[in-house]
Inverse folding.
């Protein structure tokens, strides 16, 4: 996640590198009259006097951690918060399945509501301990859509003061070793005679330590979590992520004020834990009590909570670390490259947010995809490699539009369902009076008029019809299967090819892709979330001839999933839940509304519009299924890539070598990591070509 540094902090003086003497990080002040937070705030205010510096201060992590640990915890507020927060968590579509997942699920079982209940009865020393427990509980779901960021975790961002690690195989088949980024660069230049791999982290086997660290990240697959630790050019592309990986950008307190790397040759280096302030309001605090009141208690004026984050500017150049593209959009979300005389690479870094870049961007995005395909056709390219590495998902319309550009005569083979519980059922009934336009504004399938059956052939006629039967799916009581009504969603400035306003302008057909299914391949690093996961699933389900290659992962033989991120549907922010519930409550108070079940009781089950503590969060509101008949959400199914390769040192610094390796594996008879080749891959290679 990109760290947003408020403008106010551009007035602060940056600290110099650790270990540089008295002018180093802010690691040695004790002011008796002030507590840890007061001392920290005063020091930051003193630094703010120099307006010539533009970088935010890099603080020693321990004093920041001490401040956060001193924030008081109010048990009564905590209990009320947990009680109300559980009403938001009820909208998470996978709660029961997480408690007892199928054997195909790659992560551990977790009881979210049970864990939350235990937190209510626990005596915490500080608000920070409470917040860290809550973060750990939610992260155990390994669902990028299910997130909670509570108050004390939003004030500072922790990081290890290091360039980053990379995982390097000598040939893409041998098990990789760990290197510091600069050491890997020496290896890549052939100057690595004295370079040694990382053997231990804080005295523990390095890979075991990294797997433990990775377990606190959100991907549902362990190999995708492992890849997320490392420095990668893919994280630079859209400017949405810090490139050094989650080992460096840990964001939360990593457990100690330093981390020791020990190399195979016996040498070692100590990495200090640092912190960056992210809230300008911290300058106004004089104590931990102040900090708690400013950052944790809800504002008296609801307007105070509204953010003022600016829209990102267009990227000034093509993706950093990549060759010049044959086409790209202004934000580097999709770009095209000619790998050689017969292969085009389309790198889809993101499907982008729905509304960040303005009304024209969805059309620009689609035109970039079409431009890449047209130039491929015009130059006689016959093979298409889709690079989805590091794609965190994005716009629903852009996802389905891109799919329809590649397969204009196909419907996506997926179905959605939401979790039935009292609040959801109450909202569905309360919104029954909305017409299509108002229901579309509600932006939720809880308004049944905006959805259709998955084949797009039939609308739902009533709340009861969308709620469906009482059948359970993987232990969850879910709604009927549906997809959004593409005709309603498809607008001239945000199209889905062949539907709605796009169909009225361009017809229901489209130019066929110049690439046949057997000449399309997909490569990922497992870090493929949300819309990316749906896109890869839809392509490979529509055309099983499309093969997948996964790169990296834990240093062990065997297969790796191509889709390691969340495989859910709509992500619903807490703000949207609160707004929808508030509207439903107002409707239910109307004396004319008499057909909703037990209005007073139902309203008590709706989430409160404001929680007793400040929190940012979201849930995975919809589960995605392979079809209407399927009973296990894709989030809990395994989909191994047809071939797996590890990254070589050349791959780390030059993505064209990664593309070439993927092409060789798919179409050139190249070998795969031992035990990772699928039957289709073996047949293409004329026999078993695993390492």
């Amino acid at each position: 996640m990109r760290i947003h540094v408020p403008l106010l902090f551009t007035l602060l003086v940056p600290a110099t590198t650790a270990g540089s003497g008295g002018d180093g990080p802010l690691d040695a002040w004790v002011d008796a009259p002030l507590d840890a937070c007061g001392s920290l705030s005063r020091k930051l205010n003193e630094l703010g006097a120099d307006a010539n510096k533009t970088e935010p201060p890099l603080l020693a992590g321990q004093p920041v951690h001490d401040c956060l640990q001193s924030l008081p915890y109010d048990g009564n507020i905590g209990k009320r918060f947990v009680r109300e927060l559980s009403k938001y968590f009820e909208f998470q579509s996978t709660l029961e399945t997480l408690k007892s997942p199928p054997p195909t699920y790659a992560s551990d079982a977790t009881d979210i509501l049970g864990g939350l209940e235990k937190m209510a009865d626990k005596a915490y020393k500080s608000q920070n301990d409470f917040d860290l427990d809550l973060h750990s509980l939610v992260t155990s779901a390994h669902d990028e859509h299910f997130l909670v960021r509570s108050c004390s975790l939003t004030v500072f961002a922790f990081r290890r003061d290091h360039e980053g690690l990379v995982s390097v195989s000598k040939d893409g088949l041998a098990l990789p070793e760990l290197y510091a980024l600069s050491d890997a660069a020496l290896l890549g230049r052939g100057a690595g005679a004295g370079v040694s791999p990382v053997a231990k982290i804080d005295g523990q086997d390095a890979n075991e330590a990294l797997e433990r660290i990775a377990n606190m990240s959100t991907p549902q697959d362990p190999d995708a979590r492992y890849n997320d630790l490392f420095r990668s050019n893919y994280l630079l592309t859209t400017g949405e992520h810090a490139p050094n990986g989650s080992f460096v950008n840990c964001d939360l307190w990593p457990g100690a004020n330093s981390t020791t790397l020990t190399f195979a040759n016996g040498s070692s280096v100590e990495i200090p834990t640092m912190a960056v302030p992210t809230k300008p309001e911290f300058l106004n605090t004089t104590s931990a009590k102040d900090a708690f009141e400013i950052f944790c208690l809800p504002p008296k004026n609801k307007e105070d909570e509204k953010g003022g984050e600016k829209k990102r500017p267009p990227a000034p150049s093509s993706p950093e670390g990549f060759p010049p593209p044959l086409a790209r959009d202004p934000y580097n979300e999709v770009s095209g490259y000619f790998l050689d005389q017969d292969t085009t690479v389309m790198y889809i870094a993101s499907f982008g947010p729905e509304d960040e870049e303005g009304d024209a961007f969805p059309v620009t995005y689609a035109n970039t995809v079409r431009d890449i395909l047209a130039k491929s056709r015009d130059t006689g390219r016959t093979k298409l490699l889709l690079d989805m590495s590091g794609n965190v998902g994005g716009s629903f319309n852009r996802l389905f539009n891109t799919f329809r550009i590649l397969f204009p005569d196909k419907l996506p083979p997926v179905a959605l369902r939401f979790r039935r519980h009292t609040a959801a059922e109450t909202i569905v009934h309360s919104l029954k009076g909305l017409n299509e336009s108002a229901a579309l504004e509600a932006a939720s399938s809880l308004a049944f008029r905006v959805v259709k059956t998955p084949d797009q052939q039939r609308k739902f006629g009533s709340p009861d019809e969308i709620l469906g039967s009482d059948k359970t799916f993987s232990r969850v009581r879910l709604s009927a299967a549906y997809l959004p009504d593409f005709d309603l969603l498809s607008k001239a400035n945000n199209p889905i090819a062949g539907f709605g306003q796009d169909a009225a302008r361009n017809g229901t057909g489209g130019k066929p892709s110049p690439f046949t299914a057997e000449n399309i391949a997909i490569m990922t690093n497992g870090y493929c979330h949300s819309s990316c996961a749906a896109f890869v699933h839809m392509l490979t389900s529509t055309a099983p001839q499309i093969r997948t290659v996964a790169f990296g992962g834990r240093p062990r033989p065997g297969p790796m999933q191509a889709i390691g991120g969340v495989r859910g549907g709509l992500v619903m922010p807490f703000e949207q839940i609160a707004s929808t519930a508030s509207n439903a409550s107002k409707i239910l108070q109307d004396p004319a509304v008499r057909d909703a079940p037990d209005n007073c009781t139902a309203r008590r089950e709706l989430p409160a519009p404001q929680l007793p503590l400040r929190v940012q969060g979201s849930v995975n509101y919809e589960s995605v299924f392979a079809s209407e008949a399927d009973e296990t959400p894709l989030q809990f199914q395994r989909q191994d890539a047809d071939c797996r390769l590890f990254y070589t040192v050349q791959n780390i610094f030059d993505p064209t070598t990664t593309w070439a390796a993927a092409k060789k594996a798919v179409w050139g008879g190249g070998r795969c990591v031992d035990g990772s080749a699928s039957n289709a891959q073996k047949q293409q290679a004329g026999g078993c070509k695993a390492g």
